[in-house]
Write a structure and sequence with these properties.
about 90 residues, binds FE2/S2 (inorganic) cluster, 5 strands, Glutaredoxin, 5-stranded mixed sheet
């Protein structure tokens, strides 16, 4: 994907589509945004001030049956809890 703005060292994508939305992806996205110090309500890619992470709320990541799902760089995570999201972010530092 081509980007028109700089991105963080790690790129996190959280699915916002129906199955994930019904399984708490908005809460998951908000939790990660809060942890990174970025605005969860802003549109598009948000990057933390330290440049370590960028996050975006994206359309279906094609694993609707295991919602909520997220990606961190090329790694895919299913049925992600808030605690698991914290661990995923920590593992990238
Ligand atoms: S709705 Fe989230 S992966 Fe399809």
């Amino acid at each position: 994907m081509f980007r028109q703005e700089p991105v963080g060292k790690n790129v996190v994508k959280v699915c916002c589509t129906l199955s994930c939305a019904l399984s708490g992806s908005k809460e998951l996205h908000g939790h990660i945004c809060k942890k990174l110090g970025v605005d969860a309500k802003a549109y598009g890619l948000q990057t933390s001030k330290d440049g370590q992470f960028s996050i975006e709320f994206v359309e279906c990541l094609a694993s609707c049956g295991t919602a909520p799902v997220m990606m961190c760089n090329d790694d895919f995570y299913e049925g992600v809890t808030l605690e698991q999201a914290d661990e995923i972010l920590e593992s990238q530092k």
